[in-house]
Amino acid sequence: MGEPEEKQAIRRVERLTEPADEVRMSFGDHLEELRRRVLYAVLGLAVTVAASFWFAENVVAFLCQPLLVALRMAGEPARLYQEKVPQLFVNYMEMALLAGVILGSPWIIYQFWQFIGAGLYQRERRFVKHYGAFSLGLFLTGAAFVYFLAMPFALKYFVEFSRGFKAPEAKYLTPIQRGIYGEELKGFEKAATSQPDAPLIPRLAEAPPARQPTPMWIDADTNEVRFYDPDGHVWALTAKKIEGRESLVAPWFNLDEYLSFMISMMLVFGVGFQMPLVILFLAASGLVPTATLRKRRRIVILLITIAAAVITPTPDALSMCMLALPMWGLFELGLLLGARAERKRAAEAE
Q: Is 100 helix (H, G, I), strand (E, B) or coil?
């Protein structure tokens, strides 16, 4: 005869709750194991950071690409600027460190798992392995959402918004101001409204051969006016497109501030995209049933909006909405996954 169902259930629970590693370690052994794993993680991180110096420049260019495209589309010079002498060097070092941490993260996570995994129960180990990959996928999805969708849209909007502020025309000056400026103002107005018969400068994707009939051209990639000097060297002048009156504000972006903004947005969205995993944990653990969350959906949406307003690094409503709307959709996805986990838990309890 087989064992009673009660004993079989007890054995299943014991198998799920028995430690994965039968070896018992003293407190000193734990400290030694921790020291060894930290040393391995630091050595691996040092290798990946050192290797990242070879392509840190490409990382900077990759992060700046959405802004450069937005500037080119607006007819602005595709350039970023530095305010301090060592700023570019510091940014280069930071990007190398960031790339090294990203490349070394699998090795670091592996060392961390080797230390804590031995002390977990089998069910806990399965939970971490299963949902750890899901969490990483959600984080990468959030970062990709920022880079490929949210940031191009936001940067295009902000650049065009800054160009929308037009410089005031001289016709709005008062008679007193016109009297102060005198004849110089009349000469300026005449020069501004005149249309000289100047030849058009071609817009080219590549530099024409030297000594050709095209001594000057506009570079299609950087919106710079370029020309050859008598020695055959290429010189460049910054140029921008003017539609009607010239814009009052020039969209010049600081490299350090832009990189900080881009990385902050990618981190914020990566964390915000963990919403389905949070809902799944609450439902699977029985702390908050999905029925309760559905009933309180309006309150949850309000809390999502407030959280998006707090954690986005900029105070504009556009950035808040770009985070709040995906989080709302991820909340609905979390409800579906949570309901599935509840049904599975109920089936196991039977």
A: helix
Tokens of 160: 């065009």
What is the total residue count of the chain? 350
Number of Cβ within 10 Å of residue 210's Cβ equals 12
Question: Which helix (H) or strand (E) is 44 found in, with range?
Answer: helix 27-52
Handedness of CA 325, 331, 332, 333 (dihedral sign): positive
Three-state secondary-structure class, residue 238: strand
What number of other Cβ atoms are within 10 A of residue 32's Cβ?
12
d(CA 75, CA 69): 10
For the segment 160-172, what is each residue's pLDDT rounded down to a tens digit?
888 777 766 655 6
Is the residue at 344 inside a domain?
A: yes
pLDDT tens readout for residues 27-58: 677 788 888 889 998 999 899 999 999 989 99
CB burial of residue 50 (10 Å; 0-12, 13-18, 19+): exposed
Tens of pLDDT, residues 127-146: 777 778 888 888 889 899 98
Start-end of H helices in 146-296: 151-163, 175-181, 183-193, 255-272, 275-285, 290-295
Q: Model's pTM, two decimal places?
A: 0.70
Would you say residue 329 lies in a domain? yes
Q: Which domain does 341 fall in, by range?
A: 274-350
Which residues are registered as beta bridge partners of 203?
218
Under 8 Å between Cβ of 280 and 345? no
Domain count, the chain: 1
Which residue type sits at 197?
A: D
On the 0-12 / 13-18 / 19+ scale of CB atoms within 10 A, 280 is buried
Is residue 312 in a domain? Answer: yes
Q: How far apart are the first and last CA of the chain?
A: 22
Lookup: tokens for 202: 């071609």
Residue 349 counted as domain residue: yes
CA dist., res. 142 & res. 133, Å (int) = 14
